[in-house]
Amino acid sequence: SQTRYYKFEVDYMFWSPDCVENIVLGINGTFPGPPIRANVNDTVVVEVINNLSTEGVVIHWHGILQRGTPWADGTASISQCPINPGENFTYEFKVDKPGTYFYHGHFGMQRAAGLYGSLIVDLEEGKKEPFQYDEEINLLLSDWWHTSIQEQEVGLKSNPMRWIGEPQTILINGTGQFNCTSLDKYNTSSEHCEWKDQCAPFVLKVEPNKTYRIRIASTTSLSALNFGIANHTMLVVEADGNYVDPFETSDIDIYSGESYSVLVTTNQATTQNYWASIGVRGRKPKTSPALLLFNYLPNSVAKLPISPPPETPKWDDYDRSKSFTNRVLASAMNTTKPPPIFTRRISLLNTQNRINGKFTKWAINNISLTLPSTPYLGAIKFGLNSTFNQTPPPETFPKNYNIKIPPPNPNTNTGNGVYRFRSGEIVDVILQNANALTNNTSEIHPWHLHGHDFWVLGFGEGKFSTADETKLNLQNPPLKNTVVIFPFGWTAIRFVADNPGVWIFHCHIEPHLDMGMGVIFAEAVERVREIPPYALACGRTATHNVVPIIPQPKPP
Ligand code: C2O
Ligand code: CU
């Protein structure tokens, strides 16, 4: 095993991801950030230098479990203090599982500003994957707005709230075309779609009769996506860094925070090129699908395919989404089966609410998460009880809550209490969806857990009931780090609290998290070994054992 060093200088810069110039959060002058590639058991060291003039920054390694290094999880207010402008922070962690991952900002809405890149962990040198392929293609999907995250955030906090709306463009590896409809994108003489470097149409050069492993990860701020290739099927082999029982499909749904590997064989007529498209699902799309050209070599790129781009399935065909999601099951080689019983079950009701009858928020068991200024990891380790609510949030919600109607009392409260787990607890979480503030509306939410993979025991309609117990899959549930809850439905997951640290569990939709859609899990923090002091240079952890806290003068 090796140590892989990276140096990341983060700064805003002018960039044209979709032929419209904006500012993006770049790393080392590029967008998306440089890919990280390592082998299992390598140590990854990333020195992050914050060149921003007025904002802190952190980087989270999405899907990396951070066993033994919870302070390197890169979550502001949870695992560390945001790195101040002009300062640097070195992340050091082991990658112990092969798979398709990515990294992204985890402070405010910096992910939506473009702070992300891919992170791929290969098997140990000399080891072979349990499936065969000739070449690899890596696609990192995101969605892009022409409004800045500052403007987006102010909108979300305003009364009435100004929603960010649908993205202007879907980006593939940071490039896309805005406002030039479908085929125009590939028409070199089109007036709308200039072929500039940063927004050139996405072309995948492939050779006929080869098998490609396409790694796809989604770091969208909002959109659920669907990826399909005309005339080709794909074999799904990996999800969130775990092998799945391989299954064939014409297209895949991918929610923010998820990743997949699919095998595609270029076995179609070699005289043609083929379209692939990536379109929006789960929300009424206002964004035109992103197109990719599978350019069968040696055909010219300019040769337009004779068959049209695959059509994205109807955005609200949830039955189709559910049947895809239900096909994702653990590979037979996966020997880690879930323990047969849970020792603790938490039911989390997802509701949209208001604060003081005004500001729109998302709440979990009627608490909308607001992060404290002192990072939890240090606060809990050192017993700084005044830094966050000591009352743990509710384990469940009222039995008679009607999930089919808007919340009868739309008002909620903000809070920052934590769920505490003893080492080894077997935790079930039932994520319960409900009606939002508007009648007959319930949204999809991709929930992501830090520090763990969890077993997805099942999905269901309506309110989870004891009758659903028997439907849970304990035989071959897939291991994932992100799972969706469907409108008006529930999702059940299980994990073992065997990774001491403080982990956020949240909706991976960036504005939803910003509006409070998350909870904090504190796991056997007493077992966390010494936290590097530089992770704790803010809030009360900065001074707790050095000087007494001097209260700030209060205005009269
Ligand atoms: Cu990819 Cu907490 O996030
Ligand atoms: Cu959400």
Automatic annotation (TrEMBL):
Domain Plastocyanin-like as annotated: residue spans: 10-123, 136-296, 404-524
Protein's gene: LOC103492477
Enzyme class: oxidoreductase
Cofactor(s) required for function per UniProt: Cu cation
Organism: Cucumis melo
Name of this protein: L-ascorbate oxidase
The family this protein is said to belong to: Belongs to the multicopper oxidase family.
E.C. number(s) listed in UniProt: 1.10.3.3
Subunit-level organization: Dimer.
GO terms of molecular function: copper ion binding; L-ascorbate oxidase activity
Subcellular location: Secreted
Residues of the full protein shown: 35 to 590 of 680
UniProt keyword list: Copper, Disulfide bond, Glycoprotein, Membrane, Metal-binding, Oxidoreductase, Repeat, Secreted, Transmembrane, Transmembrane helix
Catalytic activity: 4 L-ascorbate + O2 = 4 monodehydro-L-ascorbate radical + 2 H2O
A single Gene Ontology CC term: plasmodesma
Top-level taxon in the UniProt lineage: Eukaryota
